[in-house]
Queue: 3 jobs
Job 1
Amino acid sequence: MRIVSGMRPTGKLHLGHYFGVIKNWVQLQKEHETYFFIADWHALTTGYKDVRALQSNVKELMVDWIALGLDPSKGVLFIQSRVKEHAELHLLFSMITPKSWLEWNPTYKDLKYNLLRLQDLSLQIKGALRDLVKEFLGMLPYKITDFERLEERLLDDLSESLIAGIFEGELEPDILRSLNVSKRDFYETDTYGFLGYPVLQAADILAYKGEGVPVGEDQLPHIELTREIARRFNHLYGEVFPEPKALLTETPKVPGTDGRKMSKSYNNAIYFADSKEEVEQKIMKMFTDPQKLRKNDPGRPDLCAVFTYHKLFTKDKEKVEEIRKDCEAGKLGCVECKRTLLKDLEEFLSPFRERRKKAESKADEIMDIFIEGSRKAQEKAKETLSQVREAMNLG
Ligand code: SF4
């Protein structure tokens, strides 16, 4: 089976990425023909306002992929923006994709809803600051020719800065919990690129006539859309594309150090690039069962992220059961429990860390791997696009 999947370059990879995606990809590379790409164009659908870190994020991802076991001799590893055929196919698919298919995409609907919540917050902030801004403008030693416009401009800027401050951790983040919106919701706006990104995903997959796409449950609607686009194209112009299947994989959930989902934006992630000392600091600060304050308080390991880590990283399963029993019986303290975890976690992390260091020192070679992969990918995508052009009578 030909398998295609991509990952946005958003920075260094953490344990959640490994267990959620990469571990599965490494396995798929052994059994199938695979095309894995760094989705740098997709990074722009939500992160277009600030592109300063884009290139360094691409480089970090290349290093992480190689260090974590993706192998260019087993499958094609490439960078999306180096294969311009994705863009051409995206354009052609845009012509045949009804707008309503995209507007019903749950991610898009969520975004629209969350943007409304942010607008509400912005109005509240402006309401609270209006008098202060008026007073401030009244004290300026300059003649103001358009008071209202300047007042609005200042209120817009202040509201935007304050909301950014909440997302960047400069202000009490409690408000986010009640709002239930993400940093992404704030930084992106309602753009054509965001509405159309499932069409770009369809192009990413179908440029290689991908037959299987490893996904999580939340991505299922996108794969369905890819299948619908393939069906519509084949119906209109003749059979060119397969209908790719979603390969749902059960992956263990890796909580962040605060027990929430592991994510860069929650600042709760353990990275493969972290030093031993950094990992130690993060583990020792990890949230545990809040009811277990002292060693002899009985704990609830199933509510504790440290215990989830034990289940993932402690090879000796009898030892894991012992930890469970001792925690429940109040015979094990959290500090000792974390120290035990650290040993097992280090055993898991240190080979990756070593490989990462090696890969980092060979940045040029790694770049060459991805340039060569992009060339191979482009060869394949060109074949598909020439069939597409012929089918659409584009000459
Ligand atoms: S003893 Fe271990 S498993 Fe139990 S609450 Fe403390 S850290 Fe969690």
Job 2
Amino acid sequence: MKQFAEQFKAIVGDKNVITSKAEMAPYGIDRTTLWQPNPSLVVRPDSIEQVQQIVLLANQHNIPLVPSGGRTGLSGGAVAKDGEVVVTLERMKRILHYSAPDQTVTCEAGVITQHLQQFAEQQGLFYPVDFASSGSSHIGGNVATNAGGIRVLRYGGTREQVLGLKVVTGNGDILDLNRGLVKNNCGPDLRHLFIGSEGILGFICEVTVRLQPPPPPQSVMVVSARAITDLLEVFQCSRKTVTLSAFEFIAQQAMDAVTAHTGQHSPFKNTSTTPAPCYGLLEFDTPNKANTITDFFAQCQQQGWIDDAVISQSERQSKELWQLRENVSESLSPHKPLKHDVAVRMEKLPEFIARMEVKLAEEFPQLQSVWFGHLGDGNIHLNVLKPEGWSEQRFGELATEVSGLVYRLVWEMGGSISAEHGVGLLKQRILGRQVAGTEVKHWLAARNSFDAHSVMNRGKVI
Ligand SMILES: Cc1cc2nc3c(=O)[nH]c(=O)nc-3n(C[C@H](O)[C@H](O)[C@H](O)COP(=O)(O)OP(=O)(O)OC[C@H]3O[C@@H](n4cnc5c(N)ncnc54)[C@H](O)[C@@H]3O)c2cc1C
């Protein structure tokens, strides 16, 4: 691929084609760190027209391209391990248009998610998609993965925010999809094919999202419970009592990992009931009536669903409580966890967790599993930890069997093996078990239509 460096330089300028191995390495991986980075070149376009020229060149010479956002992905989607050319949209980070009457913002794909949130705030509005990696991920990467996060329960995921997309297809066509309209029933809406397509159909270059009115003041409550089934009761009860923005779940082992890794203290004093097997984190509009929360707490305690609870008294305390949840993923990373990002319908969640725990204990008693996730939308992150003293290789040899066990139960219970992280390289081989062959046939037809020579993210997803 290096022979094409001069042609790429002619498109984006000399200094925007990276050729040194050391400088390219970070562009060839995401947060999975399971594969060795091996890009041939890294190209940094500055406009949609430059992206189009890159794609046309790639088609001419059969050059495989990997779209690259903030590389916070957890499925290997942005990995370049086979000498591909990485195309990073990091220079395309301009806010292009804000429309006050529409309450929408149009920006380039390389805008960092947190910057979009801050921009919304400056307009007195709110961009609700949020998660622990928002400080690094790009809006283009969020659209490509249909990122979810902590407030899906109230606002939906990325898909629900997107009103328009400008894309360059794998064939090099520029499509202006839906143009920021709220209503537009002119035939099939291709925008939705690109959302969640993980870079296999083309480059997302510009995004128009709707902004929300800012939520009223929020309260954060953490409750300790003896079983996840009890937390689900709390969830149902809280839905009827307050306006929920988030309902998250942290198992005790996850809480322990956070307190050990970050030095943060558990919000609960050590009593006979804490540490507890699990914790729920609720965020909701602070109720107008002072006794709403005390009545809610009393009801949950009377029913035996919770043992204890803490509620934030200030914004600083809310942030500290949220950190207990947001730091779980990073705190577990030293244990090299085998991650599973699964979803089942809420009505099946208690059964799924109970059966999964029994199966894991029976078949892999030597492994410790840690549960956490977005309980309020049925999305659970099940991390199985590498035992102390085991080499990565020894642990890796069990990975297929362990994940097989998890995914078989997910399938049996009608769930999803990728709730929000996408398929990428990680789940590409088993996707066929999740999605019916007839459906995949239509995906392939779509891919063929947008990217006839498969230059886009070859070998990923399908
Ligand atoms: C600590 C931590 C917590 C996380 N929590 C969550 C969470 O709660 N919810 C959640 O959904 N995810 C979560 N993630 C995963 C990740 O942050 C999201 O998937 C995010 O949307 C990825 O965005 P990115 O810009 O980093 O994309 P990348 O990792 O760069 O790319 C992801 C995929 O999108 C493609 N892509 C990137 N940009 C474009 C583009 N412009 N056009 C076409 N294709 C493109 C890539 O090729 C790749 O297939 C978490 C990750 C970490 C590390």
Job 3
Amino acid sequence: MKKESVLRPTALVTGGAQRIGQAICYALARSGYKIALHYGHSAAEARQTAQHIRENGGVCAIFPCDLSDKRAVENLLGRVLKKFSRIDVLINNASVFEPSSLKKDEHDAMKRHFAVNFHAPYILMRSFARRAGEGSIINILDTHIVRDKTSHSAYLLSKKALAELTKMAAVEFAPGVRVNAVAPGLILPPASPEGGPANQNPGYLERLAKDVPLKRKGRVANVTDAVLFLLDNDYVTGQIIYADGGEHLI
Ligand SMILES: NC(=O)c1ccc[n+]([C@@H]2O[C@H](COP(=O)([O-])OP(=O)(O)OC[C@H]3O[C@@H](n4cnc5c(N)ncnc54)[C@H](OP(=O)(O)O)[C@@H]3O)[C@@H](O)[C@H]2O)c1
């Protein structure tokens, strides 16, 4: 039993306590991965998610880390390896999503978004490539990376940068490590400032979905299925799957 547990692959999922990150943790746990669940502020949600995984026969440990703290991010993978002794998959899912404009906002918004949405994934990717040597990295992007009109300039720029990093790292980290991405479209309404689901604006996504080719919003399973496909297909690297109902095409 102990040997079987050591043989099981391990996945680190950032921002895994709730919403899309939680769904990724559940999907990977169902597929047999041991889960290293990273969280920032959502300690109670992280504990509940880990408990749910364990109750369903999975293995999960939780790892708090402020992704805007470079030193803490540099130590995160080492903490995971201390606990699980191997790492096979890295999912960079955590993200800051706040309105900002290139004209109005100062350096702060850019710095905050780049720290969490670009630099932290980059540090984790580099540590992963060095320490794991082989495996798979998946960065969670956003269908809006194909656009230039936005009310979230710093967020969008950080995701565009992460998209380019995905492709460059796919080349540099090959042949041992594959690097891919999933770009979700309308999946969940934005989280409230407190971190909980925003229900102040019911029907928000449904209204936006009228402009999407498939005329409906997506489900978290559309994101997790794309993640599982990218992990399974060992001849795919440097790809971005748009789980967005065709929104990136229009
Ligand atoms: N929701 C959608 O429909 C949608 C659409 C397009 C793209 N996406 C992308 O899909 C991914 C997941 O989306 P989501 O809506 O589920 O994300 P989210 O709820 O907005 O954020 C995910 C997690 O990021 C973590 N995080 C933020 N700042 C952090 C920091 N400084 N340190 C540590 N953790 C931090 C938070 O963890 P804690 O709560 O533990 O602090 C948060 O729960 C994101 O990359 C997002 O850009 C989502």
